[in-house]
Amino acid sequence: MTTTGIDYSALSGLDMLRTAMAMEDRPPYIGDLLGMEVDELEHGRAVFALQTRPDFANPLGTTHGGICATLLDSVMGCAVHTTLDAGVGYTTLELKVNYIRSAPVDGRRLTATGTTIHVGRTTATAEGRVVDEQGRLVAHGTTTCVVFR
């Protein structure tokens, strides 16, 4: 049991994520810091978005690559999580990001989609894409996760 009274270990990964994200008093997570919105959680797929803002700037004045990397790590990891049985955990083992274009820090909406490629007994892989409001590719990546059974 957690302080919320919910036994997350009894829930599948998808049910746990849906329950946690819907809670009014859910525990904080990295998405709160960046203003992430959870748009979709389905088996093998996660879609999150955020609005760029001035404090996301790199020294060149555009959105820092770490913002896209965090978005990608989040959606790809959560895509893997949605496929896991109750009581099974995971963590990112490797993250690879390719940056295609810069994103201004003026409130542009960036949307990231993560989908699983393979979920095995001990490892899982996923891919992700970040696009801007016009649907233009900003960054894409892959991840390998270790699965804890």
Key features of this structure:
alpha+beta, Thiol Ester Dehydrase, Chain A, 6-stranded antiparallel β-sheet, 3 helices, globular, HotDog_dom_sf, hydrolase activity, PAAI_dom, hydrolase
Describe what this molecule looks like in 3D.
With 149 residues, this protein is α+β, with helices and mostly antiparallel strands. It has a single domain (8-148), classed as Thiol Ester Dehydrase, Chain A (Roll), CATH 3.10.129. The protein contains 3 helices and 6 strands; from the N terminus they run H-H-E-E-H-E-E-E-E. It has helices at residues 13-22, 30-34, 65-81; strands spanning 37-42, 45-51, 89-99, 109-119, 123-131, 137-148. It has a 6-stranded antiparallel beta sheet with strand order 1-2-4-5-6-3, with helices on one face. The protein is globular and about 45 Å long. The mean pLDDT is 95. Its EC number is 3.1.2.-. It holds the Pfam family 4HBT. Residues 61-139 form the Thioesterase domain.
Q: Kindly, what is the distance between the CA atoms of the first and last residues, rounded to a whole number of angstroms?
A: 19 Å
CATH hierarchy, class: Alpha Beta
Shape assignment: globular
Count of domains: 1
Biggest sheet record: 6 strands, antiparallel
* Secondary structure tally, helices: 3
Lateral arrangement of strands in the main beta sheet: 1-2-4-5-6-3
What's the order of the H and E elements? Answer: HHEEHEEEE
CATH H-level superfamily title: Hotdog Thioesterase
The helix/strand class is alpha+beta
